[in-house]
Design goal:
With 90 residues, this protein is α+β, with helices and mostly antiparallel strands. The chain has helices at residues 7-16, 67-72, and strands at 19-22, 27-29, 39-43, 45-50, 53-59, 64-65, 79-82, 86-89.
Length: 90
């Protein structure tokens, strides 16, 4: 995601964001909730669930989620739950 940005844009993003820690089993986004947060995984692993069904595991840095709510102001289409300790830029 960040590879398309120049250094000034990356600095602006980092200054606007919070860096948050999440513990295993902690919900980052609940399906159906309204959030304006956009998440970038720095490290750790999360599980994605739709209708309580496990869809995919995202591991390591670089994954982005929450973009549907962030961009379109719609309720979250999935739940995201920390599988390990997670650091995210929000």
């Amino acid at each position: 995601f960040f590879s398309r940005m120049d250094e000034d844009d990356k600095t602006v993003m980092a200054n606007l964001a919070d860096f948050r820690q999440f513990n295993p089993q902690e919900t980052l986004i609940a399906e159906g909730s309204h959030t304006s947060d956009l998440f970038f995984i720095i490290n750790g692993t999360v599980d994605i669930f739709v209708n309580q069904k496990h869809i995919v595991e995202l591991a390591g840095g670089g994954h982005v989620f929450g973009e549907i709510s962030f961009v379109y102001r719609k309720p979250a289409s999935a739940s995201v739950v920390a599988n390990t300790k997670v650091t995210a830029m929000v």
